[in-house]
Design a protein that fits this description.
The structure is a homodimer. In chain A, the strands form two sheets. The first copy, chain A, has a six-stranded parallel β-sheet, with helices on both faces. A six-stranded mixed β-sheet of chain A has the order 7-6-8-9-10-12, sandwiched between helices. In chain A, helix 2 crosses helix 3, helix 6 packs across helix 14 and helix 9 runs parallel beside helix 10. Chain A contains 14 helices and twelve strands. Helices cover about 45% and strands about 15% of the residues of chain A. The longest helix of chain A is centred in the C-terminal third of the chain and has 21 residues. Chain A binds a DNA duplex through helix 1, helix 2 and helix 4.
DNA sequence: CGCTAGAGTGGGAGCGCTCCCAATCCTCCG
DNA sequence: CGGAGGATTGGGAGCGCTCCCACTCTAGCG
């Protein structure tokens, strides 16, 4: 009955109440320095009294921006990834965006139809920037985004010289440290189960594996390398293959915890003890690693931190975009960070 | 150099090209029936040729809606939940929203500050509706949302007669089926580790446990009930307590997989075999359940389906809100669904 | 054959904000 | 003491869309 209808106060009302003009209120709200202390106080009081909150749609329309960024997750990939990974990314991203009062739009892309819809989204200027998770080597999405002139940051990269800004973890270091650790435990025949090699992360871990072997003076042997796909089943297949080819292996570096778990199952079925006969190291430090039997040694990535950095990098791009030319961007490239964060080996009973 | 600037086509341009007025284009875009077949075709052609996509901000401003809904996740809770749970909810929600061309805004609430910011969000009409995950009994957020007159749907409920629309799983049924299964395996001293009892889901599972005992003609014994908090550590503590009080127990129904895993660790440490000495059943059918040793029998909830239903229910509320009175809503309550979806027992080696 | 209903249509009037220009008021300098 | 220059300020002009009020044109009715 009383009903304050849709009655949110507007900028205009705040201005009236504060006894100033619309422009001045707008300046105060947006933190412009060109406002007298006096006016600023009056406006702030009025804002508080009225409980004024700016209307986003109006702002977006007038200011030609949205204060929102999209986090894009190709769904098929996501299934493969250790799931907590994705959640941790969200955590980091969300925290950083909240501080900047930006909205987080979550977009899962499952089908081609959804992909198209998303491309329309982008075209319709519905976000100020895009965060892309789990990109494959031949994923066209990053380029599409860039073609539209939208700020973007990838999680991971597609190749060594990724043209789009990215935040990655040190996959090479991960592989190297795992191998060095295993060698330090006295293992000599160290095998590896890789991820799908069209993912740069998988390639990096493999490179790290090789570098590690070289560093500790062990020979490389291609029979000790088997390709998986980051899934448990893939880990099983790869492990079976390895055992067949090299029955004498005494350690395995699996490029994901899930594959390590699959490998462990096969080892057990074949009567090999972990870590007695074969030491095992995974990557991700996922819950599965902690709960497997024996608990799995694993290389941890700073996932949440990656999310945070991604968001930060994106915000910086967006800010630069707005400040600089409103048109095409410079090729200065100062605002196209390539971040590689260090990983950490968590030693548990499996090695 | 060519640069189509920010030059997205506008409604006006489409109208010109199609040789009709703005109003007609708007009608076609929004699927109004009051348009001649001829005009409709002309507009559709112009839209296709120009690659027109409506500007959301303008639409939101003019239409007083946003075509976006928020999915709110109190972060502290989330930690407790089996993580895939949350992802599956997102999947369901996302799929359903995408079909309705609605945006999904993800909001993690960690601190009080973020909570306040979120309340401002709501007040600022930045979303058309809200989905709330993992509500505690005394959570004020649902009521706040309703006070603002915003459509809302909860995942789970705070009490038996939850005033806000919700989608829940059949927690009572979950507890009952677990107990009946264990009894069917010949167990007579069936204990339970509950979740935090200020969560209705936890209470429901406990009720189901009791109903199950009654159904199979076993006596209830409060010493066989221990309270956990859905975490692994909580499961450990509760299990230790149970063993102390009732060394003769031969089965445990844990209200979450994580607690079941904790319980298993304690059982093993105390030299009790699973399932030989003590059978174990969890809830969630999480990856942890599949990977634990032995694989854990668990009650599965249709999580993604819950997400889907939540979204659908919310969309319906939003539609009704818009269609009906634009002001206060009727008390007809037709649009306040209370959905309880069935669960399913997945039998594995632990029981 | 005039008149009344629609059906279909065009376009004015905003939605609430930002941008930006012109106006005002000081202050300081020659 | 006059004028230049900077600091503040008010408010017009949109941003692209929806809402809604006429208005035109038909078809059907008595």
């Amino acid at each position: 009955m009383s009903g304050r209808q849709t009655g949110r106060p507007t900028l205009e009302e705040v201005a009236t109440r504060a006894g100033v003009g619309r422009g001045t209120v707008s300046r105060v709200i947006n933190g412009s320095p060109r406002v007298s202390e006096q006016a600023k106080e009056a406006v702030e009081r009025a804002v508080a009294e009225l409980g004024y909150v700016p209307n986003r749609a109006a702002r977006a329309l007038a200011g030609n921006r949205t204060d929102a960024v999209a986090l894009v997750v190709p769904e098929t990939e996501n299934r493969l990834f250790a799931e907590p990974y994705f959640l941790d990314i969200i955590r980091g991203v969300s925290a950083e965006l909240a501080d900047a009062d930006m909205q987080l739009l979550l977009t899962l892309i499952r089908t081609d139809q959804e992909r198209q819809r998303f491309e329309q989204y982008l075209a319709a200027q519905r976000v100020d920037g895009v965060l892309l998770v789990s990109v494959h080597r031949d994923d066209p999405l990053p380029d599409l985004v860039r073609a539209l002139g939208l700020p973007a940051v990838l999680n991971g990269r597609r190749s060594e010289n990724e043209p789009v800004a990215y935040v990655d973890s040190d996959n090479v270091g991960a592989g190297r440290s795992a191998v060095e650790h295993l060698a330090g435990r006295g293992r000599h025949r160290i095998a590896t189960i890789t991820g799908p090699l069209d993912m740069f992360a998988a390639q990096g871990r493999l490179d790290g594996y090789r570098q590690g072997l070289a560093a500790v003076g062990l020979p490389t042997d291609d029979r000790l390398v088997s390709t998986g796909d980051f899934t448990e089943e893939g880990g099983r297949r790869a492990m079976a293959e390895l055992l067949e080819r090299c029955p004498d292996l005494d350690a395995v570096f699996a490029a994901s915890d899930l594959m390590a778990v699959g490998a462990r199952a096969v080892l057990r079925a074949r009567g090999r003890e972990v870590p007695g006969d074969v030491a095992l190291v995974g990557v991700d430090d996922s819950p599965v690693a902690r709960h497997s039997d024996p608990p799995l040694t694993s290389v941890r990535q700073p996932i949440e931190e990656m999310g945070r950095r991604m968001a930060r990098a994106l915000l910086r791009q967006i800010a630069a975009n707005g400040a600089g030319g409103s048109d095409v961007e410079e090729d200065g490239g100062e605002e196209r960070p390539r971040l590689v964060l260090p990983t950490e080996l968590i030693v548990r009973a499996s090695s």
